[in-house]
Amino acid sequence: METVSENETPQDRKQQAEQKTSDEEQRLMAVEALGRRNNWEPSVFYSLGKESFCFVGHDISIRESIDTYGALIWPGCVALCHFLENNQQHINFMDKAVLEIGAGTGLLSIVASLLGAWVTATDQPEILSNLKFNLLRNTKGRSRYTPQVAPLTWGSDLDRDFPFPSYHYDYVLAADVVYHHECLDELLKTMHHFCRPGSSTTLLWANKTRFQSDLRFTECFKSNFNTTLLSELPQQEVRIYMATAK
User: Fold this and answer.
1) Mind giving me the DSSP string for 63-120?
2) Which of 4, 31, 113, 210 has a 20 to 30 Å separation from 164 between CA atoms?
3) 237: left (phi > 0), else alpha (psi -120 to 50), else beta?
4) Regarding beta strands 58-64 and 49-55, do their DSSP bridges make them parallel or antiparallel, or are they unpaired?
5) DSSP assigned state of 209
6) pTM exceeding the 0.85 threshold for the entire prediction
7) What is the DSSP string of 109-127?
8) Cα–Cα distance for residue pair 238/75, rounded to 1 Å
9) pLDDT per residue over 154-163, tens digit each?
10) Could you give the CA distance from residue 174 to residue 203 in angstroms, rounded to a whole number?
């Protein structure tokens, strides 16, 4: 039974009731968002969470943020991390310049850093605070180079912010950047900017297939780049591609 303070006013009781309603609404929204996340559909997540991994002999703790779906970990990212860890003789990141587009929580960039790469992790400005937190937390004193963080909006101001050849990378990484959004043309334009004819840049892209638009993008991707299917995980519906410019 709830107790009522002698000094409590009706207004106090009203405010408490409104607060309880607000708290319950937030809880229900978080539960709903978590359910969508477990189905691997982009959503907003309303409470902070942690994910723990072990890659390259290091324990990695990732803080997921309330910012946007870009602050969650998706299956293509985990798959590509495993692939890079298990194929270091085939893909050697030691002392290589590596760019990640759509870095999100930073897990993939962290693994690349631990593999010896000089990493620049990019995403939308609102993602960068949590991205930087995770990168520094998991690479300080562990990695050969301190990973860098930079804002990058797909298809926007690329020649101004990342002029070629001043910004040339050995590898460009992208994980689960293709889903049901309206920026697929801009994403392809961004991939072209960093992986262009005459450059030695290799693009590594991992993605879970969710929608028909994903399949259409994949066909367009294959027609624009020289592509090789490196790995396929049927249960997760994840494919990992290596690509170079045509």
Assistant:
1) EE-SS-GGGS--HHHHHHHHHHHHTTTTS--TT-EEEESS-TTSHHHHHHHHTT-EEE
2) 113
3) left
4) antiparallel
5) -
6) no
7) HHHHHHTT-EEEEEE-GGG
8) 7
9) 999 999 999 9
10) 8
